[in-house]
Amino acid sequence: MLHAVGILSFLAAVLVVSPVLASESDHKYKPDDPVTLWVNKVGPYYNPQETYNYYSLPFCRPSENAPHRWGGLGEVLGGNELIDSQINIKFQKNVDKGHICELELDETKVRKFKDAIENSYWFEFFMDDLPLWGFVGDLDRNSDNKPVIFTHKSITVKYNKDQIIHVNLSQESPKPLEVGRSLDMTYSVKWTETTISFAHRFDVYLDYPFFEHQIHWFSIFNSFMMVIFLTGLVSMILMRTLRNDYAKYAREDDDLESLERDVSEESGWKLVHGDVFRTPCNLVLLSALVGTGAQLALLVLLVILFAIVGMLYVGRGAIVTTFIVCYAFTSFISGYVSGGMYSRNGGKHWIKSMILTASLFPFLCFGIGFALNTVAIFYGSLAAIPFGTMVVVFVIWGFISFPLALLGTVIGRNWSGAPNNPCRVKTIPRPIPVKKWYLTPSVVSMMGGLLPFGSIFIEMYFVFTSFWNYKVYYVYGFMLLVFLILIIVTVCVTIVGTYFLLNAENYHWQWTSFFSAASTAVYVYLYSIYYYYVKTKMSGFFQVSFYFGYTLMFCLGLGILCGAVGFLGSNLFVRRIYRNIKCD
């Protein structure tokens, strides 16, 4: 019982306390106040997710009771474990040469350090929530590329009055690795004053030339022009055709010959009015996917807005924490959309639909995460998620997400679950005529994702680069525009595809419209394969599994989101066009 109370207390702290807040309270110091240098992780530079505890390498360890600092939920999931280095640093006090420890090299230590240097191991420190990076060692170009280790850490700290603004670390005094040799590990600290304000201290980590390059602006403009073109296509060509169809279909003509001619010429989407609202196969799964996709669409919008307003990129793991908490509280939307859709189509097993809706995406992520966690545990990496964190995530899902999904399902069934089809469904299904290959549902589905992928193609490059190449993504205004463009393009393309399918007298539009939009994720995943081989230097089973595992998780979410948007747009379109025809 006490254990459960402790878990819930920790959960409440996670939800209430922002992960951006540091243990250094208000980030204000007085002269000679101690400043903690936290060591975090170490790993191959070209494999961002393959990280280990800093002291997995035989560096000088602090005392056994050295303080550890665990941040918010997102920070733990991101593989951060901060340990007090116990290096004596005081505010505004310069240190010309301080002693860290005497490092005695034996055969095991030399082997570990050589392997780390040959694989370009880097490490990460934190001081007052500001990161410092450095390499463990280097290859001596003047001595047949023999590995050397840096023995001196030179730390430069800029401050403005009583606050730390910027920290920088440079590595000096490279020494060769020789068994039996003793290395004097030292450090120095230099304090300089600056006029930069505390509010702008994180700007130095933002790569403005990269993210605000003219090609980024051009991609937004290009996508915007695509939106104008597609909306114009739907309104000027498609709607004009529909208007002509309406006029022909509704015309009352007493001339028998004219009437017979109209009947003989009648074809296309009007002929399937008795089947177009037939209950789709696997209604439970389709309802769950559409409900989850609607939730993810709202979730992404909320996270982007929070990132814009709250500058979440500043805090370690703040985006992940926000995503998890917002997902839990938006579960009502998935239940509402799924429950209403399931009931409108005559579904009877609403509990089954509700459980699948609440657990579909979380369990997909859990399955992928469990496999990746197994790999991380086998390698002894910090990327392995602690058991206690898993319990916290499960508690969030079980006590917040699941009940809200249940509530949404009940309300959706009662408020928006009444059947309201414009046309009566016939008892006997109409046979679907054989059409040309490009009008088949499979081809329509695969072609439907091309234009949405084209609208986000450039943004995917920036997102991938920020996640896999140590760049801080901060241009969430761009992301908001791209997301809105993606939604509009997806809806337009799916409506066009649905119209072509119905004109081919194929009334199986529900799943086709979903897959037509969801296929965008297939092209994103194919692009990720290209990005891996052309744009990165990643290697090893650990990094490969994490790269393609995380990308698969992202693409599943993107596919479900786009599929739901495409289906909902097509659903409104189909109901609109069949509302004004004679369905006797």
Task: Write the topology of this structure.
Layout: H1 2-16, E1 37-44, E2 52-53, E3 68-69, H2 73-77, E4 82-84, E5 95-104, H3 107-118, E6 121-127, E7 130-135, E8 137-140, E9 146-160, E10 163-176, E11 182-193, H4 208-211, H5 214-250, H6 256-265, H7 283-310, H8 318-329, H9 331-344, H10 350-379, H11 387-416, H12 441-448, H13 450-468, H14 476-503, H15 509-535, H16 541-579
Parallel strand pairs: 9-11
Antiparallel strand pairs: 1-2, 1-4, 1-6, 3-4, 5-11, 6-7, 8-9, 9-10
Helix pairs in contact: 1-11, 5-13, 5-14, 7-8, 7-9, 7-10, 7-14, 7-16, 8-11, 9-10, 9-11, 10-11, 10-16, 12-14, 12-15, 13-14, 13-15, 14-15, 14-16, 15-16
Element-level helix/strand string: HEEEHEEHEEEEEEHHHHHHHHHHHHH
Largest sheet: 6 strands, antiparallel
Please state roughly what percent of the residues sit in beta strands, choosing from under 5%, 5-15%, 15-25%, 25-35%, 35-45% or over 45%: 5-15%
Radius of gyration: 30 Å
Supply the helix-strand structural class: alpha+beta
Domains, number: 3
Instruction: Please state the overall shape, judged from the principal axes of the Cα atoms.
Output: elongated
> What is the β-strand count?
11
Task: Estimate percent helicity.
Answer: 40-55%
Low-confidence parts: 1-23, 253-257
What would the average pLDDT be, to the nearest integer?
A: 87
